[in-house]
UniProtKB/TrEMBL annotation:
Organism from which the protein derives: Paraflavisolibacter caeni
Residue stretches in coiled coil: none
Pfam families (UniProt xref): FecR, FecR_C
FecR protein domain boundaries: 193-288
Name of the protein described by the UniProt record: FecR domain-containing protein
Gene3D superfamilies membership: 2.60.120.1440, 3.55.50.30
InterPro entries named among the record's database cross-references: FecR, FecR_C, Ferrdict_sens_TM
PANTHER family: PERIPLASMIC SIGNAL SENSOR AND SIGMA FACTOR ACTIVATOR FECR-RELATED, PROTEIN FECR
Domain Protein FecR C-terminal, chain residue ranges per copy: 331-397
Keyword Transmembrane helix belongs to the record: yes
GO molecular function terms listed in the Swiss-Prot or TrEMBL record: sigma factor antagonist activity
Transmembrane intervals: 92-112
Keywords assigned: Membrane, Transmembrane, Transmembrane helix
């Protein structure tokens, strides 16, 4: 059984070993892990082999090593000194930097989270024939449907005023859509819908100043002016909300027959049809999740999960950074199975995923969403547990 509680802890201990900074307890833990099985021993030997590390560093040429090192030292209470990688740096520092890159770089898979060494043949082949039909990442793409049913393709539209909806002016500001209601007595309520395609995302500022970010393959239906006793919108897919405070007019999100009720707060709702549950994650403030007779009051760091069967449970201690990775421009997987990983990849790159064979391995990875599809697949292949082909708009998992 693994002596370490997380892949990060393993990497942290190996870095300290390479710097000769282990205390007795840490050394005993490392020795126990190395001797636990032959795969652990072989993997550890790779990190002791400077030539091997130099080979693998070439794969990460585009990564800013100093930034990567800053990320990891931020989690080690600042005990390590941040420096720039140079040709004349000491051997242990070079090796430590290599581990850092493998663990927290911009294109990284936590290879210590799975058993077995990396297949160098896979990574060599990855950059040639199999990935010749590469796919670019998604971007700011959406279609706006106005009250009369007419549509505006936002990625093609010029910045500035797009339409007038009742007393509200619709404005495009780069990758953001804004609604500016006039200060008149006119309270004509009409509805608009903004929808992102697979491979798209968009931000919108609602008439009350609330901010909404839509993930790929998502939609938001909303009134062009809020009147009455509540502010009600409806979503499909995934959206992150920063709701403007208004105690007199609660904000309500309708999703899959359920409701998220708030006054002013930050939260994320994930409600894709191909996911096992509707997940509402609270970052700041408080929200009440209501489904039938089930009511759940959430605190920051908690997540309500509504299953397809109608059951509701609340989970505490949720990894908020993982939940919000998409909004911050990243993929983040903390022990995710291959199907969970590939659902996110499929939506963002607008590709179909076909499985020749599935793996039971769990993936620990963090990488930017603004990179080509081949870079994401190459990083995942570093585990040595999965292999991909790209055929047009189709990914084959082997």
């Amino acid at each position: 059984m693994d002596q370490f509680t997380s892949p990060f802890q393993r990497a942290q201990t190996i870095v300290k070993y390479l710097k000769n900074e282990l205390n007795e307890d840490e050394r005993n833990e490392l020795e126990a892990w190395v001797s636990a099985n032959e795969e652990n021993r072989k993997l550890f030997e790779q990190f002791k082999n400077e030539n091997k590390l130099q080979e693998e560093l070439k794969f990460f040429e585009s990564i800013n090593i100093q930034d990567a090192w800053q990320k990891i030292t931020a989690q080690t209470e600042g005990r390590a000194k941040v420096v720039t990688l140079q040709a004349k740096m000491r051997r242990w520092w070079y090796a430590a930097a290599a581990v850092v890159i493998l663990m927290v770089g911009s294109l990284v898979v936590y290879r210590l989270s799975v058993s077995g060494p990396v297949s160098t043949e896979i990574t060599k082949e990855s950059g040639t024939k199999r990935f010749k039909n590469d796919v670019l990442p998604g971007g700011d793409k959406a279609v706006l449907t106005l009250a009369d049913g007419s549509t505006i393709i936002l990625d093609d539209a010029q910045n500035g005023a797009l339409a007038q909806q009742g007393a509200t002016k619709v404005i495009k500001l780069g990758g953001k859509l804004a609604y500016d209601p006039a200060n008149t007595g006119t309270k004509e309520v009409v509805y608009n819908t903004i929808a992102t395609p697979r491979g798209g995302q968009y931000q919108i500022e609602l008439p009350d100043g609330s901010q909404v970010w839509l993930n790929a393959a998502s939609s938001l239906r909303f009134p062009t002016v809020f009147v009455g006793k509540e502010r009600r919108v409806e979503i499909t897919g995934e959206a992150y909300f920063e709701v403007a405070k208004n105690k007199a007019m609660p904000f309500i999100v309708s999703v899959n027959g359920a409701e998220v009720q708030v006054l002013g707060t930050h939260f994320n709702v994930m409600a894709y049809n191909d996911e096992a549950a509707v997940k509402t994650t609270l970052l700041e403030g408080s929200v009440q999740f209501v489904s039938g007779n089930n009511k759940s009051l959430l605190k920051p760091g908690q997540q309500s999960q509504l299953s397809k069967e109608g059951g509701v449970k609340v989970v505490s201690g949720v990894d908020v950074e993982e939940v919000m990775a998409w909004k911050n421009g990243n993929f983040s997987f903390e022990g995710s199975d291959i199907e969970t990983v590939m659902r996110q990849v499929s939506r963002w790159y607008n590709v179909e995923v076909v499985y020749n064979k599935k793996t039971d391995e769990l993936f620990y990875a963090e990488m930017p969403r603004n990179t080509k599809l081949s870079d994401v697949l190459k990083a995942l292949e570093l585990t040595g547990k999965v292999r991909f082909d790209i055929e047009g708009q189709k990914i084959i998992v082997m």
